[in-house]
Amino acid sequence: MTPVFVDTNVLVYSRDVAVVEKQERARAWMARLWKDGLGRLSTQVLQEFYVTATTKIESRLSPSAARAEIRGLLPWKPVRSDHRLFDDAWDIEDRYGFSFWDSMIVAAARHAGCEVLLTEDLQDGQVIDGLTVVNPFRQSPESILG
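Now predict its structure.
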């Protein structure tokens, strides 16, 4: 199985106690990706997670706790933004009409060699240049990873 790219909303919901059902599903995905060694993400995802987890969710993390979470995710080989990622994101933005930020996520997932993108921000089941969008709150890890 190829790596699975995780968008910010999965990380945030795994920590947010306000939406219990989504928290449970996000945690199930995270546990499975850790178990199988398949999780990937980007520095953009980590930045968005830090801001959201420390300022926007009901069960806010302290900055030190959020930093520890991010450090713990570094083995997932975060894709860094560079000129190639920007070029690819702009191409995706132009071809699909996605927002710039969503285009950066799709480009990062492709750069990470992923075939699956976990996000609730794009259409579940949509295929973008060989990358399949999976809404992690509609589909279980078992339904995708076996």
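The longest helix spans residues 20-36.
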